Amino acid sequence: MKRLILLFLAFTTPFLVSAEDYHFTEGSSFSRPLFEISATIFAAWLVINFLISLVRIILDNRLKLKMIEKEVSDKVAEQILQPTKNDTKSQAFKWFLILAGMGIGLGLASATTPFGIHSIAIIVCCLSLSFLGYFSYMKRSENNNLNK
Q: Do residues 115 and 30 make contact, with C-beta atoms less than 8 angstroms apart?
């Protein structure tokens, strides 16, 4: 719930504080500072998410090496070393779908000039379709795991 509130505030704050009237193009009501702030927040989120994932992978690897050195019992090792639900293949596929959806959305948005609110709608629709594709992929993989 806290994340949802924080994301809501992060994306609505630029609307509230933008007092200047910069435009990408003539006749567009989409302000440049709003775009810059939103893009900066999104880029920071991507970088932080990447760093957290990298640290998690490194620490998991160090834990496994320590367990091997200490010769932990088989029962405890099995419980800790079991693969997690978020394995690297599904994470890589998720990021592929997200970035592909963003690329398709940006490509379609650049083809429909002038830039405006419809450009954001195109990008958001493409991203939501990529998330829908990932959801169906995960649902299908869960069904395959249950049938085995």
A: yes
Label residues 92-105 b or e (16+ Cβ within 10 Å = b): ebbeebbeebeebb
> Long-range contacts of range 36-39, CB-CB < 8 Å, 24 or more positions apart?
37/13, 38/11, 38/14
Least confident of 17-31, 41-55, 57-71: 17-31
139 HSE (CA, 13 A, CB side): 6
pTM of the model: 0.47
3-class SS string, 37-63: HHHHHHHHHHHHHHHHHHHHHHHHHHH
CA atoms within 13 A on the CB side of 100: 12
Please write the tens of the pLDDT for every residue from 65-106.
888 788 777 777 777 767 665 567 787 788 888 888 888 988
